[in-house]
Specification:
It contains four helices and eleven strands; from the N terminus they run H-H-E-H-E-E-E-E-E-E-E-H-E-E-E. Strands 3-2-1-6-9-10-11 form a seven-stranded mixed β-sheet. A two-stranded antiparallel sheet has the order 4-5.
Amino acid sequence: MRVALPDSSSLSAARKSLRARLNARRRQLPPQQRAQLSGLVARNLDRALQLRNDWRIAAYAALPWELDAAPLISLAAERGCRIFLPRIDRRRASGAMRFVPMQGPLQHNRLGIAEPQGSKALGARWLDVVFVPLVGFDRRGVRLGAGGGFYDRAFAFRHLRRVWHAPRLVGLAYAFQEVDRIDAAAHDVLMDAVVTEEGLIRCTTG
């Protein structure tokens, strides 16, 4: 899917403003409501995707203001899925993202994100479904992230494919994080779907 790209400086400013607005709204959610909505997202995802025990899935350890992926992770474990969490490789200047089995204790990285510490990792190409955090999204599948670009770099290989864009990328979000349109940057990797407390949204790629 080709999207006309705006000037990079105006794009950056628009994204910064949108990110600040949506982050402020996420931080206003009381913990009880966050837990309730996170549970609804997991339930909607279970109905829509029907997780299978042979799937290799990646999720994320949520920061306090993000939609909590813990209910989804518990559900995936019940279904027998192999679960991986991202880990940022601190030995590389680019901060490459690797996917490590969710086993043993987690440690917080310099960004405050909890990561697994095992030595084995699975390449991003070999995952079946990746559940990604986001700050904002639109129905074309454009994802506004936190600004680090880790997911876009990890899945940049999808730009080279014309047909099947595996692994499937599914955003987890509150319904209020949807916006009418987010101008795409050249490096953006589009999502296939987004699940909110209101249900599944299939994006253009999906």
